[in-house]
Description:
Layout: H1 3-12, H2 17-36, H3 64-72, H4 79-88, E1 99-101, E2 106-109, E3 119-122, H5 128-139, H6 148-161, H7 176-188, H8 193-200, H9 208-213, H10 218-225
Antiparallel strand pairs: 1-2, 2-3
Amino acid sequence: MRRVDLQEVVDSCPLKHASLELIVSLFNGMYAYAIQNDIIEKDYSKYVSINIPDDDVNGVPFSQAAIETLWKNRDVKNVDMVLLMIYTGFRISAFKTIRYDREGGYFQGGVKTAASKNRIVPLHPAIRGFAENFYSRFLREGSESFQPHTCRREFYKTLDALDLTYSESGIKHTPHDCRHTFSWLCDKYKIDELSKHLLMGHSPGGDVERAVYGHRTLDELRAEIEKIQIPYSCR
């Protein structure tokens, strides 16, 4: 199957955005296996996009206590990836093609919808080291390829090891909850509404003024991101 065939599967699927992410992740895993075993030579899955608006309705943010636990265990394998997702708001699927500007200190990417494609999210100073680890492992020339399905599997194993699998209300956490946590942190630390809108790649919907005149510079976005406070005991 070539890219056009895979894209047709995603475009014709009536499921929500989060389910489409799982389908694309499955494609990524299939093609990674096929390449590793010399079945195919080209990974067409990395060119597949999700062309419907993001569905951010369902999800449970990590509690403040859970965030503190993650920070206290930040040296545990794969915890840095969970914190990267929490403090950038990017989905697992976005990290497949994300770009890291080391000099500018930001990630650029996103699932390819009109609003989120190639959005820029400055990195909070506390997670710059995690970004460097991600760069060394997945983005540097000759490094391994990032596989969303593998990251998703490791996410659940990591939470289970830290006894964070379930929220305080008893709901099982998913990787998408990292994005909800980022949204919650933006609200908690009073990041202005337009900046939050741009950082999360939300569609402006019918807000014509925001769609046309809504702009922030990199420095302005960085100043908003840096409003978020890291748990004092974990600094």
